[in-house]
Amino acid sequence: MKKLFTMFLCSVLYACSGMQTQSDTDQKTFKMGLQAYHATQWQAAQNLLQQVLVDEPKHIEANFLLGNIAVRNKSFAKTVTHFQTVIRLQPHHTKAQDNIALVHLILAERYFKQFSAHQSSPLKSKKLVALLMAIDTFADNHLSKQS
Asked: Contact, 44 vs 71, CB < 8 A?
């Protein structure tokens, strides 16, 4: 009986060794998404990383990379959602903190430009114009470094 149980246990373990767990599948999908991201294949990376989040919504790096892709696509609401998830899960994730701050600056600049376009007199504050130009330059440089 003991020998039969041992044989049964060995056969079950052997059968299970060939099976992939959900975590293994997610890791492989994440690696493929990461490769697509580094190859600047944004759509493929986005699709693969979103697959990871279906099964593992708290995957920090998948959320971070999807936030970066959303910035590139100028989908700022998605960007904020992904970076907020990263920061909620890992409060000291400095890159996510920097990126979400950058997105808020971009949105602030956009709203300010919309506001100033509806003003009857031109913008007179030289400091404010210089600040907006500095924000724009910072945003352009920061986004080009992420690529």
From this structure: no
pLDDT in tens, 55-70: 999 999 999 999 999 9
User: Residue 95 and residue 89: Cα distance in Å, rounded?
Assistant: 13
Q: Give the rounded percent of residues in the chain with a pLDDT score beyond 90.
A: 50
Decide: pTM greater than 0.70.
no
Q: What angle do CA 131, 95, 79 make, to 5 degrees?
A: 75
Report the CATH number of the 21-146 domain: 1.25.40.10
Domain residue spans in the chain? 21-146
CB 49 within 8 A of CB 30: yes
User: What is the rounded distance in angstroms from the CA atom of residue 98 to the CA atom of residue 63?
Assistant: 15
List, in sequence order, the alpha helices (H) in 90-122: 94-117
* Spatial CA neighbour of 37 closest among 3, 64, 69, 71: 69
